[in-house]
Design goal:
It is a single chain. Helix content is about 30%, strand content about 30%. It is an alpha+beta fold and about 160 residues long. A nine-stranded antiparallel sheet has the order 1-2-3-4-5-6-7-8-9, with helices on one face. Keywords: Signal. It comes from Flavobacterium frigoritolerans.
Length: about 160
Amino acid sequence: MKKIILSGFIALTLLFSATSCSSDDDNNDYESIISAKDLPQPATTFVTSYFPTATYKLIKKQNIPDSDGSVYDVSLSNNFEIDFDVNGNWVDIDGNNQAIPVELIPEKINTYVKENYPSQSVTSIDNEKTHIEIELSNNLELVFDLEGNFIRIDK
C-alpha cells in the first residue's frame, strides 16, 4: 500500500513539474527574432541614414512594449543598439562607448554638453516620455526636460 501511495505521489509530482515547465516555455513568446524587412519603414530609414555602413546583427520584436514604449530592439554590426517604438521612431540609442551621431542629439542638449563637458561625447541617449537622458563618454548621466533644458546629473 505504501508503494502505491508513494508511486502515485511521484507520478503527480512529475506531472505537475512537466506542466510547470511547459508554462515557462510560453514566456519565450514575449519576444521574437525578426528580419529587417519586418521593421517599420521609419526604423529602416533611420538606420540607413545615420549608420549607412552598418549591417543588422540581431533584431528582436517584443510582443509587449517596454515601459519606455520600445518594441523593436536592433543590434548593429558597429555595436550600436537602437530601440524603436511600434511606429519605428527611435526611443533610445546606445553607442556602447562610441559617440552618437551629433545630428541625433537635440541642439540645446548638444550645446550644453559642448559648453560644460567639452572633452566628452554623448554615448547613449534615451528619449523617455517625460525627459531625455544622455550618458557621456566619462559615464556621467545627465537628465534634460523634453525641451532640452538641463535638470540634473543622475548617479
